[in-house]
Each structure stands twice: as structure tokens, then as C-alpha cells.
Write a structure and sequence with these properties.
By secondary structure, the chain is mainly alpha-helical. It is built from 3 helices and no strands.
């Protein structure tokens, strides 16, 4: 079993306390974003999942990859006659 020095204990306490605070802030921000997305989705008659996907793609700066994936999917569906 690991033995911690008093200095280690203080560092761990600080880390855990700061971690709890950050996790709480992240949860509050996620909930706020969820509420905002829901409100905009209802207002604009857009599915919340579509708005969340747009946010995720924009955040990761992956529009090019998402577009390439969609183009490939579209080609497959057109090939098998399932675009309607």
C-alpha cells in the first residue's frame, strides 16, 4: 500500500476538490447547452440531434470528413436504389 507524505495528502486534497468543482461546472454547462439546443430546435423546427451533431462537427473542425462520409453514404444508397 502506498504511503503518502503530508505534502502528498495536501496535493491530493487540492486535486480532488478542484476536480469536483470542474466536474460540477462542466455538468452545469452541459445542461445549459442542452436547454439552449432544445429551445432553438423547437423554435426553428429542427431536431435537437441535428443541432448537436452540427455543434460536435464544428467543435472538432471535422466538416470535411463528415461531408466525405456523407458523400460515400449517399453513393452507396444511390447504388442500391434506397435514396427515397
Amino acid at each position: 500500500m502506498t504511503t503518502f507524505t503530508p505534502e502528498d495528502v495536501n496535493k491530493l486534497k487540492q486535486l480532488v476538490n478542484e476536480g469536483i468543482q470542474v466536474k460540477g461546472e462542466m455538468e452545469a454547462l452541459r445542461e445549459g447547452l442542452k436547454d439552449t439546443v432544445q429551445a432553438i430546435a423547437e423554435e426553428m423546427d429542427i431536431k435537437p440531434a441535428i443541432l448537436n451533431k452540427a455543434i460536435g462537427i464544428a467543435y472538432k473542425a471535422e466538416f470535411g470528413r463528415a461531408k466525405d462520409d456523407f458523400d460515400e453514404l449517399e453513393t452507396i444508397l444511390e447504388t442500391v436504389g434506397r435514396t427515397l
